[in-house]
What does this fold into?
Amino acid sequence: MPPTPTSKPKRIEDRDSPLIRSIQAGDADGFYALVRRYQQPLFNFGLRMCGHAADAEDMVQDTFLNVFRYLQDFRFESQFKNWLYRIAASTCIKRRRRSQYAPEPELSLDDFLPGDENAVAGETPPWAREPLERVLDQELAEKLQEAIVALPEKYRLVLVLRDLEGFSTEAAAQILNLTPTNVKVRLHRARLFVRDQLKDYFRHDRPAPAA
Amino acid sequence: MTDPHRPPEPHHAHCRELFARLSEYLDRELDEIQCREIEGHLNACPPCQACFETLERTVALCRQMPSRPVSGDFARRLREAVARMGAAAGAGRTS
Ligand SMILES: [Zn+2]
It folds into this structure.
């Protein structure tokens, strides 16, 4: 006989579980440990999403406030880290909605199809060929950050979670309440958008490195 | 290349179809048959190969983005905020 489907979701144990259980049981100091554990990753996430340290700090503080408020409701049905980033992502979205109301543009694959942009379309440019550490300097890091912030938010969230924070497709889907297919589609367009910004930068603003 | 005067047309339907799956290929989210199909095309089509390499580099650069440490001042403000939350929650429970 096949096993009867159970309505009880399985509990997920991860490195945070003991600490979370302890906080839920009333360990007041546990929350400080949780903040110490996640303040740096959340600050990075906020910085990538907002582009400014002050906004990122506000986002981190709001996120911990919401975690404090709702931690009793956490049921270990997902990894704690995914639940935490879900709160952080919705905090980012709420903050933006307060500051701007313009609808966000959609990115279409057709916008990024390689055209006849230059005569050597078949040649990989130096910035994609040379050793990474020679290419990535302070100025490029700033350009890259600008390109990420220029992304419409729903694409930016996916790119930041996947390519900067290192979440899997499945985890990003859980955090953003999307299907994995949706995550993949948005990620691809986001990457193509950033790639186009980098191509522009290397074509116009940066002299070719000496051979 | 067999005929240098006729490079593959970038808008070729096959290129377009491949273009849509490059990230999944990069992330190893395709099955083996699709991977081999893409590899075959990349080897034969320099524009798609260049397209793939710039995309791959873009992702590598994102992964290598330097992070900025949280300032000591912010860490202190965060601890104070947590203390206020705890005090408020404690007050809520006892009242
Ligand atoms: Zn092609």
Q: What stands out?
A: Chain A has ten helices and no strands. The mean pLDDT of chain A is 88. Residues 46 and 58 of chain A are 9 Å apart (CA to CA).
